[in-house]
Design brief:
Strand content of chain A: under 5%
CATH class of the largest domain in chain B: Alpha Beta
Number of domains of chain A: 2
CATH topology of the largest domain in chain B: D-Maltodextrin-Binding Protein, domain 2
Radius of gyration of chain B: 23 Å
CATH architecture of the largest domain in chain B: 3-Layer(aba) Sandwich
CATH superfamily of the largest domain in chain A: MetI-like
Number of helices of chain B: 12
Distance between the termini of chain B: 62 Å
Radius of gyration of chain A: 26 Å
Number of domains of chain B: 2
Order of helices and strands of chain B: HEHEHEHEEHEHEHEHEEHEHHH
Helix content of chain B: 40-55%
Oligomer: heterodimer
Order of helices and strands of chain A: HHHHHHHHHHEHH
Helix content of chain A: 55-70%
CATH topology of the largest domain in chain A: MetI-like fold
Chain lengths: 313, 322
């Protein structure tokens, strides 16, 4: 057998040789191609390490600055104060948790229902369905401050007139991240194999029974992931809340869904821009750690949900 | 079938909790002091003052619940005139359009000064400028100003020496800020008119860092931010025709420093009479303005200003305030 100087182990493999007796079809990599391959790999690794490095520096910086504040007495139980050592995040943390509850209660039913409609029922030949689809894609790219204006005009004032309360804040954040849930939900529903649907239908189930008993349970992992991604974005939003007129400082935490509130991102923003920076920056860092902690907790729940419900086809 | 009903039940449960929370009355009688909720919004410059006031008032009246926002003087008045807040913080007097807005909303109010504020112009310590006239500042900050080097501004208004031959890096607040409105109004003659090729930030700490880290750094920001960074900044005096004046507690109080202004709270008369907590809070602010301002690193009022503020509040306060 005539062989070039470049030897390829795959080509030499007798099983491959058996499959492709004519070696001309599997060119052995030349030195030039190997070099290119290595350069490409190295540059990918470099990109990855830049991202990781920045993240690492950020985490180190925040942890270094805020860790001792995190365990100081009263940090979790006191409201903010103009005196740094008396400051805590209690009302802000409660406000953020309330916001997330409202947001979750809104985006899951509405987002999933929309996704189900678009995937299972909508007739793409109708112009209005294509119109809805196009708009959902567009809404995902609208700047968050616009949602703040919307929330101020329609939820805080106007038709609903809720006032500057948790419900208005949570619904505004919900509207902001709804496209994420819808898009992820559709993706999840689409990955459920048609055979499952056809099997269910063949056994006499209605379309609704098929969706409720077969498709949705199978799509739960994807929906959960999308929801958590959406909440992760919502939890850090500051601009829409400022526009709604959420308080930056509150002596007491929100005591219900129709109570005035403040939230962690507002508190962090306020501490970072305080004139006594050397005293308040550690507080901001500690609050950032808490925010990330809440985020990680939510992610952990999502991963648990995904593993719990994941199905192999 | 049953699952569907669970969903309906859960949804109505959420609603019920919400409605219950809405209906809950927070006027429970506690151990001394007033109770109720006070909503304050407005200028971010007044925010530290309002926050400190709320904290101290809360110590004496544990049953009171106070929320302080900082959507800016304009944003604050908009909400105030719609009847959404009880007290509006302002770093400038209420404007004619806002007066109309309040009239439409049926909101009457009083203007009670609570503290003073100055805007400091500062440079990097290496850029030795001790005083600039308001004309020089206008030349530097005016719309489409071509000035890029300190020497183009002529002589130092204090020493008379030529200004150093240094390329300038300019720092200032973003256009949403009340500080920007005030500075452009006082220096460039019209609110909002400014060159735009400077480094803007809504966060004064960023401006301080920029100016102190840049050899040709020059910027303007709140006076308290200068006070916290004395060793990293060089303070520039301002000459508005009567000689160079550096900002200080005294020159800001008597307004001899050109870039100084009063900070006020606008309480709604309706809130004052309907909500005893608001009346009692405003009384506390008027009585303790000096301590609150000092705690909040804001320039307190002079004695005369404090007397005027008390008189202004007495005019609008309801008869039943302790």
């Amino acid at each position: 057998m005539a062989r070039g100087p470049e030897r390829d182990p795959i080509v030499e493999d007798p099983r491959v040789a058996a499959l492709a007796p004519d070696h001309a079809y599997i060119p052995a990599p030349t030195a030039e191609r190997t070099v290119k391959e290595r350069i490409f790999k190295a540059s990918m690794l470099a990109c990855l390490s830049v991202a990781l490095l920045v993240l690492g520096v950020l985490l180190y910086d925040v942890a270094h600055e805020g860790f001792s504040t995190l365990f100081r007495g009263g940090f979790f139980t006191e409201p903010a104060s103009s005196v740094a050592r008396d400051s805590g995040i209690y009302p802000a943390l409660i406000g953020t948790l309330y916001l997330m509850v409202v947001c979750l209660a809104f985006i899951v039913p509405v987002g999933v229902a929309t996704a189900v409609y678009l995937e299972e029922y909508a007739d793409r030949d109708r112009w209005y369905n294509r119109f809805i689809e196009l708009n959902i894609q567009n809404l995902a790219a609208v700047p968050s401050i616009i949602y703040g204006i919307l929330g101020l005009a329609f939820l805080v004032r106007g038709p609903l007139g809720l006032g500057r309360v948790v419900m208005a804040g949570g619904l505004t954040l919900g509207l902001l991240v709804l496209p994420v849930v819808i898009i992820a939900g559709r993706e999840a529903i689409r990955t459920v194999p048609p055979s499952i649907r056809e099997g269910s239908m063949a056994l006499g189930a209605t379309q609704w029974q098929t969706i409720w008993k077969q498709v949705l349970p199978a799509a739960v992992p994807g929906i959960a992931t999308g929801t958590i991604l959406a909440l992760s974005r919502a939890i850090g939003e500051t601009a829409p809340l400022i526009l709604l007129g959420a308080a930056t400082f509150a002596t007491d935490p929100a005591d219900g869904f129709f109570s005035e509130f403040t939230a962690l991102p507002l508190q962090i923003f306020n501490w970072i821009s305080n004139a006594q920076q050397d005293q308040f920056a550690p507080l901001a860092a500690a609050a950032i750690i808490v925010l990330m902690g809440v985020l990680l907790l939510m992610n952990a729940i999502a991963i648990w949900l995904r593993n719990r419900f994941e199905q192999k086809w | 079938m049953s699952r569907k009903w669970w969903l309906v039940l859960a949804a109505s449960g959420v609603l019920a909790v919400g409605v219950a929370a809405c209906g809950s009355d927070d006027s429970s009688d506690g151990n001394g002091g007033v109770s109720g909720t006070i909503n304050i919004d407005g200028s971010s410059t007044v925010f530290p003052f309002a926050q400190r006031a709320a904290e101290l008032f809360k110590e004496e009246n544990p049953d009171v619940n106070i929320n302080v926002g900082e959507s800016g003087t304009g944003g604050g008045f908009e909400k105030f005139c719609a009847g959404e807040t009880d007290i509006s913080d302002a770093s400038r007097p209420i404007e004619p359009e806002e007066i109309d807005l309040c009239r439409q909303g049926g909101v009457t109010y009083g203007d009670v000064q609570v503290a003073d504020d100055g805007i400091s112009v500062a440079t990097n310590p290496q850029l030795a400028i001790s005083c600039l006239t308001t004309d020089q500042l206008k030349q530097l900050w005016d719309k489409d100003s071509p000035v890029s080097n300190a020497s183009e501004l002529g002589d130092d208004a204090d020493t008379g020496d030529a200004l150093p031959d240094t390329e300038l890096s300019l720092y200032g607040p973003g256009t949403d800020s009340g500080t920007f409105d005030f500075f452009t109004d006082k220096i460039n003659g019209e609110e909002g008119v400014s060159r735009d090729d400077y480094q803007p930030s809504e966060d004064d700490n960023v401006l301080v860092q920029g100016v102190s880290g840049d050899e040709g750094g020059l910027g303007y920001f709140g006076f308290s931010y200068y006070g916290q960074n004395l060793d990293q900044l060089n303070l520039v005096s301002v000459d508005s025709g009567d000689g160079c004046v550096a900002p200080s507690t005294e020159t800001i109080q008597d307004a001899s420093y050109y870039l100084s202004r009063p900070l006020s709270m606008y309480p709604s008369e309706k809130a004052l009479s309907d909500n005893p907590a608001v009346a009692s809070f405003m009384q506390y602010v008027v009585d303790n303005a000096d301590k609150i301002a000092t705690d909040a690193l804001i320039v307190p009022m002079s004695d005369d200003q404090a007397t005027d503020a008390r008189a202004a509040f007495n005019q609008i306060k309801p008869g039943n305030v302790k």
